[in-house]
């Protein structure tokens, strides 16, 4: 017996040596060239999926949150304000230079990014003036609505675009000439979001930054009160859009239940009066108030056609509304599992979306985006060109994060698991790099998945979700007339 086994064993060892030598050649000596092949074939495959729909959106109305991002180095700002390091304390809201200093110091010493609103406008104004006096400063377009509008204009210069929101003089200068801003949108002073950056190794008092990150603060009454909501709806009449994109609901979080319930009613009534053949997309953004999220889902979601959101927003929504995998939110770390995300998208469509049993709901599309992959779920009769939309969205994610026009394999990497399932109980899958856009039909809904090629050295991560959602929409075609 032993003698008989000797031959195949020797053969096996021999083959294994050859195989290892071969793998060594491609993986160890030059692991990147092998991996780059995967990325290259995904980039090439995407371009085959990305085709424009037969009927493109031509007139797009966007609102409502707009602001001016002012980026400055954090420590020189405190110097200009004559504020010394002092103690550390995490204040939920900022009302003085002292609470500002203590809260910043708290996060600086921990090395974590944070955002805190000011409750005192005159002190915030003083801080912004000090920031503007610094030599090193940069102004950028900020706010989901403003970012989506400028992305669409960049991708499709021929599209007629109207933007409504609080737009001050500096922000106005940053927009392309061809974005229409109605007169009522202009405000006298920009709503500034102050982004204070610091680098690894910078020291302040007894603390040293262990990572490079940022502290953000603002006193943004226009956006937190959605002061342009009425203007937004009234401006739609003269413009006659064929696509409406809205964001900014999340900014009302700090305003108290009575306030946001009242604004939500105005929002809902405005949506309810719109022509139902015009699709309305709502882009969510980070929310921590479970009650506000519940109101958004119960009151607003059935009044919109399309919803865009990321893993934090999706899993938090499922958590507060007792959807699938609702406890995962509590211990969410790293990237969410693919099948769980698609379960949650299905749940939103089934629970809040259009169906024969719920014909009054307009919701027919959910576009999920995360760092490593995107999934789109639709009612198939209502939306077409969905594969192109997802491919265009994932393609945009890598390009915008790397801040390049064309992706090259060396700049990016695939970060989805080697095997995954597309929905709970589904078969195990592996990505075919030549066909990275996967689509399937499940319980009457159409789903599309594509991985993202994640930028290795990201340059621009602000507004990534906005760019993805705006791109996906512009590659989609709405066929509401097909619904019966
Ligand atoms: C804001 O702070 C200033 C300076 O401390 C103070 O005089 C003013 O009363 C504060 N305003 C509000 C609304 O608290």
From TrEMBL:
Molecular function terms from GO: kinase activity; metal ion binding
One annotated GO biological process: glycolytic process
The entry's keywords: Glycolysis, Kinase, Magnesium, Metal-binding, Transferase
Gene3D superfamilies the record matches: 3.40.1190.20
Domain of life: Eukaryota
Protein's recorded name: ADP-dependent glucokinase
């Amino acid at each position: 017996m032993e003698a008989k086994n000797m031959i195949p064993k020797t053969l096996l060892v021999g083959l294994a040596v050859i195989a290892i030598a071969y793998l060594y050649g491609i993986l160890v000596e030059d692991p990147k060239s092998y991996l780059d092949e995967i990325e290259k074939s995904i980039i090439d495959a995407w371009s085959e999926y990305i085709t424009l729909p037969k009927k493109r959106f031509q007139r797009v109305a966007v609102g409502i949150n707009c602001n001016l991002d002012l980026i400055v180095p954090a420590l020189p700002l405190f110097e200009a304000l004559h504020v010394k390091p002092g103690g550390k304390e995490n204040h939920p809201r900022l009302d003085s230079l002292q609470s500002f200093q203590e809260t910043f110091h708290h996060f600086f010493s921990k090395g974590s990014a944070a955002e805190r609103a000011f409750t005192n406008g005159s002190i915030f104004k003083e801080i912004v003036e000090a920031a503007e006096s610094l030599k090193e400063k940069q102004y950028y377009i900020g706010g989901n609505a403003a970012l989506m509008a400028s992305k669409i204009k960049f991708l499709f210069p021929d599209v007629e675009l109207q933007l409504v929101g609080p737009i001050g003089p500096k922000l106005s200068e940053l927009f392309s000439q061809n974005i229409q801003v109605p007169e009522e949108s202009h405000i006298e002073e920009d709503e500034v979001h102050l982004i204070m950056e610091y680098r690894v190794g910078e020291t302040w008092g007894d603390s040293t930054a262990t990572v490079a990150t940022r502290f953000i603060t603002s006193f943004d009454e226009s956006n937190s009160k959605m002061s342009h909501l009425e203007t937004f709806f009234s401006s739609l009449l003269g413009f006659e859009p064929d696509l409406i994109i809205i964001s900014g609901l999340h900014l009302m979080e700090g305003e108290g239940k009575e306030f946001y319930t009242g604004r939500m009613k105005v929002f809902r009534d405005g949506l309810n009066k719109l022509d139902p053949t015009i699709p309305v997309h709502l882009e969510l953004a980070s929310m921590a108030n479970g009650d506000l999220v519940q109101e958004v889902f119960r009151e607003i979601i059935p009044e919109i056609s399309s919803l865009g959101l990321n893993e934090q927003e999706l899993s938090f929504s499922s958590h507060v509304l007792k959807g699938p995998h609702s406890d995962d939110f509590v211990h969410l770390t790293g990237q969410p599992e693919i099948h769980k995300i698609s379960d949650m998208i299905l749940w939103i469509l089934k629970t809040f979306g259009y169906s024969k049993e719920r014909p009054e709901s307009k919701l027919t599309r959910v576009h999920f985006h995360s760092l490593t992959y995107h999934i789109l779920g639709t009612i198939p009769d209502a939306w077409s060109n969905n594969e192109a939309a997802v491919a265009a969205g994932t393609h945009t994610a890598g390009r915008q994060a790397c801040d390049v026009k064309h992706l090259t394999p060396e700049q990016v990497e695939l970060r989805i698991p080697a095997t995954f399932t597309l929905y709970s109980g589904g078969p195990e899958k592996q990505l075919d790099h030549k066909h990275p856009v996967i689509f399937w039909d499940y319980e009457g809904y159409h789903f599309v998945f594509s991985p993202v090629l994640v930028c290795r050295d990201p340059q621009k991560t602000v507004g990534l979700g906005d760019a993805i959602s705006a791109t996906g929409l512009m590659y989609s075609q709405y066929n509401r007339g097909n619904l019966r």
